[in-house]
Amino acid sequence: MDKKLTTKDYTYIASMLFGLFFGAGNLIFPVYMGQLAGANVWPAIIGFLITGVGLPLLGIVAMGISHSTGLFDMASRIHPVYSKLFTCLLYLTIGPFFAIPRTATVSFEVGLATNLSDGMASLYLAIYSFLFFAAVLYFSLRPSNILTWVGKILNPIFLLSLGILVVTALLNPMGAVSDIPVASSYGTTSFFQGFLEGYNTMDALASLAFGIVVIKVIRGLGVKNPNTVAADTVKSGFFSMTIMALIYIALAVIGAQSRGIIEIAANGGAALSLISKHYFGNIGGIILAITMIFACLKTAVGLITSCSETFAELFPRSLSYKTYTILFCAISFSIANIGLSNIISFSIPVLMFLYPLAITLILLSLFHRFFKGAPCIYQSVTVLTLFAAIFDFAKALPDGVKNALHLDAVLAFASHYLPFYDLGLGWIVPAVIGLIVGLIIQFYDTKIAGAASAHPEK
Known about the structure:
It is a single chain. The chain is mainly α. The protein has 2 domains: about 5-345, Amino acid/polyamine transporter I (Up-down Bundle); about 365-450, no CATH class. The chain is built from 18 helices and no strands. The longest helix is centred in the middle third of the chain and has 47 residues, at about 270-315.
């Protein structure tokens, strides 16, 4: 008989989920979005919560409902080769290419960058990121102690520090949100901009990687029935994501209010540092910086460990876990030194490509049983989504790259023929068409199979 989880169990799982998801990007992007959205911050928040909270929750639930053993298993319903490529690209994105370097640059931006002259910032970033990833490498090779210590002690200190900042800022706002000017990009499409901004948290991608971790924990607590596991996953995920949603809302509002006194910062890390110093001076900035460094260190160790284990498992005859750990730390160090703003800029095209594929995989897995997991539906939806996602990727490239590749005609074609393309959502209609095509193929396959079974002599 299945064990019935207690409130303490749900709290434990939700806390673990929060620790897995809440990293550097979860702090900086809502603040920066608030600065840009200004008076239009509320529609932007709603859009942000859909992709920053709703999709990660659905990703975790999809993993449980579809009874998958992990991302590779879930994506294998499309094709084994596609599954391996998608898994590698997703882990590299939430790992050494973007998310892990971001942990170093965010903690640097919040802790040190605002106190340095522009001429010295690059040198100090190099020194800081080297020490940061040296520590990440040390603990990634022996992760249990740092993850336990940081998770139980430093994470609560970090959240307490953040809570003090949030409450202080909300009680003593720098300005009224309704009076804050709106950046041009948030003028008439603030909801859609917030929706796309939620991509930057990378949490929907992470949910596909970490969902199996939650399921294993629930099973380890004595819950064996797949339906009960799925239900407990939903409850734990909902609790954790509700906390994250409240933090996002508060940070976005504070970001918008900050425009009453400070200008739009270069990025969310710089904005958060300036806001902290406004309320607490240099001491407050130092306290926030220290807790931020350890929180980011914990996140980086977790991601390095997860990525190294995944690649060692996917390619058992390649490199060892230790070698992957060293390699990924070296890559992360190199990318961190291009700076936070550049990391964000280069990550956007990749996220515009990956997110549509992740969203459709999550939705198909959620409704898996309604179409009996027919491969033709997975394949047709994914192929057409992939086609449209390439155009979304091209549109999000830096202007210099687009000009060098002479993409004007390609982008003009997509803008003319793909609905919602100009909003960054050109994949939606192709995905729906793919679903319809897949359902038609499934219908005729079922009809032909039925006829063959009814007349076996033929």
